[in-house]
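Design a sequence for this backbone.
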């Protein structure tokens, strides 16, 4: 079996999920990865056979999507040629984690595909949304990737085709302890701004993961660290809690570990507004995206914030098992996903 796995390289979540899923997919056959985009801080340890600038999602200085930069980043003729060159028709299974080029290639060549990941969950109306929907946010989430099947990942099972988060083994196997510090991952905010806020809480230690520092730097009660997967995992596992955006992977990992969360949806990111509603419904402390982060809000959370825990340990097996149930290619079902292949 040959698998074409398209991975969006905007942000770190897609790549992290792909690294976790890869060993499972390789039990089904040969996996060729297509890395699309160039806006991630995480090293892609994947079998990358195809690579493209893709149509990356870019963010402005306030953290919101920069729609102008997204729209004009590529020459349409160049994109069309690249789409035609993707050999999706030569694969038995096309798995697409939010890549527009793969979606267009499958559409032009009439190849079935599976849209798999967090963004796929927004195809379903049952997934929480804010009271005031963003038409362009909904358009991006629903139309950026078209596929014959949509299998979503989310905090809760809002629909039969939605499963829990794919948690990496380092988190699943960890024994969480509390060493008293708070992990901070807010890459959309400048280090100097975070320092001006966190220094006002001098008795609390913070470990801030920064996209600008090259080495660990101590500033009184604040330890700035470069973004690096192993270091971040260790910090989160040993933390009292985490302050982060209202993304998907990081809050899910924190809930798997039983860490309390202060979620700050980034202004202008509609997907994070949706996630914030879901987290709030679960009891997680969520800040107002229209208000600036301040020391008072953090101190209130430190004192009164609740720990919300979820078990996503079976999500990988369940979601891949669902692919086994729905995926078919004429006259090749037994070849593609034989029953003897066990999910582990």
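Sequence:
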């Amino acid at each position: 079996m040959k698998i074409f796995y398209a991975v969006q390289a905007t942000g770190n979540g897609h790549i992290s999920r792909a690294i976790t899923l890869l060993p499972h997919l390789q039990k089904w056959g040969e996996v060729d990865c297509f890395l699309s985009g160039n806006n991630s801080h995480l090293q892609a340890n994947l079998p990358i056979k195809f690579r493209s600038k893709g149509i990356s999602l870019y963010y402005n200085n306030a953290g919101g999507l920069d729609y102008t930069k997204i729209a004009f980043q590529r020459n349409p003729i160049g994109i069309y040629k690249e789409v035609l060159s993707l050999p999706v028709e030569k694969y038995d299974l096309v798995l697409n984690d939010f890549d527009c080029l793969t979606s267009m290639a499958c559409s032009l060549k009439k190849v079935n595909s599976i849209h798999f990941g967090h963004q796929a969950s927004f195809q379903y109306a049952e997934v929480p949304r804010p009271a005031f929907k963003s038409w362009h946010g909904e358009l991006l989430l629903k139309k950026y990737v078209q596929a014959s099947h949509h299998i979503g990942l989310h905090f809760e099972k809002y629909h039969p085709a939605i499963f829990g988060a794919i948690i990496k083994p380092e988190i699943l196997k960890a024994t969480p302890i509390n060493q008293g510090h708070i992990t901070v991952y807010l890459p959309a905010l400048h280090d100097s701004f975070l320092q001006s806020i966190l220094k006002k809480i001098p008795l609390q230690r913070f470990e801030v993961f920064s996209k600008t520092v090259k080495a660990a730097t101590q500033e009184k009660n604040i330890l700035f660290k470069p973004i690096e997967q192993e270091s971040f995992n260790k910090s989160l596992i040993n933390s009292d809690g985490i302050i982060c955006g209202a993304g998907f992977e990081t809050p899910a990992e924190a809930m798997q570990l039983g860490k309390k969360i202060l979620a700050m949806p980034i202004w202008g990111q509609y997907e994070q507004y949706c996630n914030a509603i879901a987290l709030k419904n679960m009891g997680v402390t969520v800040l107002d995206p229209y208000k600036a982060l301040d020391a008072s809000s953090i101190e209130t959370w430190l004192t009164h914030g609740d720990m919300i825990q979820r078990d996503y340990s079976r999500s990988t097996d369940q979601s891949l098992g669902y692919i086994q149930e729905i995926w078919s290619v004429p006259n090749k079902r037994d070849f593609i996903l034989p029953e003897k292949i066990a999910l582990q």
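The CA atoms of residues 206 and 222 lie 5 Å apart.
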